[in-house]
């Protein structure tokens, strides 16, 4: 059985890591490269950077940040935000990213997934899905969770896999920053819809929430931000709890 992964998420805006609730009310929490280095040393299995304002501001993501991270961090890291073309993917991978996440642009131009996967391999391509509950199911939200695409999130996850995505980063807009736990029904529904790994995101407020999503769903990884940024809980604390509850999780120091 493949070990579950614990992944700190760094939402970046104007060169700083920020955190909010339901994608709004952002506050600054630190320098992205410094935080990535700290989390790497503390035992993170991977790190994800999301330049959350790049798409809305119509610009590319922060390449200098990616280069500095690649020089100082020795766990895999994914970068997303403002990725619109295969050339953007090329530049991010050249800058040192291990994987590239795409969201709004992939919804608008699904061939971006296929072309990127063909050129670099599915293992490099992460499709980020921001999903919000509606009466008829979960819809894909774009532009930092602000626009309802009207697309069914489960169908989009299936299509993303068919086009060549190697992983799904699934964020519940309803649970984001609320700290009451992951959206378990949404998470399992997407896991059931695809064969590729799914990362659960949105709602983690305590270590037991990560243990819960691992025990209650077949998700491959869990992403958290607030509990690590605010120093209320450590990666070691999360992993220790998961191990105590029987979750197959990678021990700190084994990479």
Automatic annotation (TrEMBL):
> Where in the cell?
Cytoplasm
What does the entry list under GO cellular component? cytoplasm
Has UniProt tagged this entry with the keyword Heme?
no
Superkingdom classification of source? Bacteria
Query: What is a single Pfam family found in this protein's UniProt entry?
Result: His_biosynth
Disulfide bond is among the record's keywords: no
> Which Gene3D superfamilies does the UniProt record give?
Aldolase class I (3.20.20.70)
Which reaction(s) does the protein catalyse, per the Swiss-Prot or TrEMBL entry?
Answer: 5-[(5-phospho-1-deoxy-D-ribulos-1-ylimino)methylamino]-1-(5-phospho-beta-D-ribosyl)imidazole-4-carboxamide + L-glutamine = D-erythro-1-(imidazol-4-yl)glycerol 3-phosphate + 5-amino-1-(5-phospho-beta-D-ribosyl)imidazole-4-carboxamide + L-glutamate + H(+)
Q: What is its EC number?
A: 4.3.2.10
The UniProt entry, under InterPro entries, shows: Aldolase_TIM, His_biosynth, HisF, IGPS_HisA/HisF, RibuloseP-bd_barrel
Root EC class: lyase
**Keyword annotations for this protein?**
Amino-acid biosynthesis, Cytoplasm, Histidine biosynthesis, Lyase
Give the positions the UniProt entry annotates as the active site.
11, 130
Q: What family is this protein classified in?
A: Belongs to the HisA/HisF family.
The name under which this protein is listed is Imidazole glycerol phosphate synthase subunit HisF
Task: Identify the species of origin.
Answer: Pullulanibacillus pueri
